[in-house]
Amino acid sequence: MDKMPKWADVVLIPLISVVLALLVSGLVVAIIGESPWRAMQIMVRGAFGSAYGWGYTLYYATNFIFTGLAVAVAFHARLFNIGGEGQAALGGLGVAVILLAVDWPHWSLALAAAMGFAMLFAAAWAALPAYLQAKRGSHIVITTIMFNYIASALLVYLLVNVFRVEGSMSPESASFAAATHLPSAADFAGGLGFRGSTPLNISIFLALIACVLVWLLIWRTRLGYEIRAFGHSETAAVYAGINPTKIIMITMLISGALAGMMAINVVMGEAERLVLDFVEGAGFVGIAVALMGRSHPVGVVLAALLFGALYQGGAELQFEMPAISREMIVVIQALVILFTGALDNMVRMPVQQIFLSLRRRAAQAQNSPEA
Amino acid sequence: MDFLTILQILDSTVRLATPLLLACLAGLWSERAGIFDIGLEGKMLIAAFFAAAIAYTSGSVWVGLFAGIAASMVLAVLHGLASITFRGNQLISGVAINFLAAGLAVVIAQTWFAQGGRTPQLPSEARFANIELPGAATRIRDIAQQGPLGQIYSELISGHSILVYLALACVPLTWWVLYRTRFGLRLRAVGENPAAVDTAGISVMGLRFAAVMIAGVLCGIAGAYLSTALSSGFVKDMSAGRGFIALAALIFAKWRPWYALSACLLFGFFDAVGNRYQNIQLGDFIVPVQFMQALPYILVVIVLAGLVGKAIPPRAGGEPYVKER
Question: Given an 8 Å threshold on Cβ–Cβ distance, is B89 in contact with A330?
Fold first, then answer.
């Protein structure tokens, strides 16, 4: 018997968890001695109050949709890909390699090639942890963490020794040619008030397309069915003739490729060159986004929007309330992960109790006239 | 390279291995009881902040140490609640704890000290001083005059903070408790087969909570060491991935205390060499410093790949225990 209706599982519980996380965050702000209410007003205004705010909010959200989908796809096979950070970094490397090596005539061709390379590099970075999980049983969480650090060391080395422009001190690559620059929101939606400085670019449409594709993959294809079956029960999946090695490898390659796509938005769309630490924790935000979005593309988009707003609003908050550090966002992110992920049962059990007792009362009410 | 230079590198190896060792033993306690702990990093970081902040405000490094341990234990309780009481995902809980610590430390530091998320520089009485063992020379000129044994004694063995010796003492202590006491036997059993322990009438939850709390204490000492002995004050993200290197060392050591010591010394050595030499010349080939930094992680991947032995984790690790399944 279902313990509670589906809407409670999909909407109510994540909502309660997020509200709890925000309440505790508000408590932290109050303890610091600022008004949580005013802080929230500043953040909402900073994120949604202007075209400038929207531009940044949606730009961050684009990153988080990609990294959130990456984590979500892996979750469906009950794999915890914590390596989005390193995979995205490698994706950026792929983008830089192909955009610097070839003289592209038009951005659309460059975009296609950059996407291919970003996904290829990032998927390759996810492949070894996947192989070790599938063949040696090494825990994918441990190996992907290790690969994050190896990726970061590799990128520092390459930026300092290979990509750095002659005579420049900063560890960053040369700027990409103007022909490869992606249309920004000012170009395709200038009428909405976006200026040339907005980081928002056409990558957001790629992110939304990725959501649809992931939905199709997970719920409308044979492979998606196998991934979900494997995630529910490995033994049952094996009994049904599903090859676990294949599922682990393919799932992680897709997951890595999605994380790598984030580099299109940042490296190709915004920075227009490869810079150090361009991922800036987006790979980890993806964990919170996937947990909060219940690994469903619609949920991922909503959660990514919330975190995009938090990142942009948090930047504004720092200007208006210097006592609150920008790291407050990290605290909120941690609390969202904690409540929607680790403490899920803490919220779930009482809600189940309520629904069970409601149902029992309804059953009693039905029976009582007859008695 | 002369003998004294080697000794100096080994000396800083010991210093840099200490926080790794404490965190690695913390992970060993927790994982031997079947609770994965990727929140070592976060617990170290929050302890580093509170140790420095309280040592600065109270002027006593010991008060700071206890504040650091207390802060780390609060996060350990949270991890226990999430992963033992509410049977949540232990890995997700660890990730949350890492972010919580990274965020809270800076947010509180900014509120208390308003110096951009760091604590002020600690005065010497708020730091752990180096202990000079009897008969050891302290000035580099005197050490250079001594014979090899005297140099080893003065440079390598003497002159560390008390936490270094404490960390080293924790290795035999951990071994003895885990392998020679009833509590240790039960604790290891709970990480392999909790149902059997439960059948014997022993509380699985109690043992696991005990292990998680011990891990909290050890991470607290490791964090306090970072901010009050290795450096003088807290700066943002000062644990710098040490919690994860400790995890790597734990796998490298195959979850055993004495191997943990050697793994941590090895990784500390990489760190020391990387600090001293930016790039290492081996014949015509130059080893970049970034390679030295990534080496612990690469080694672990090699171990996990099964190229060097096989690392088998405790069998019940990561799985919440449900009574009467």
Answer: no
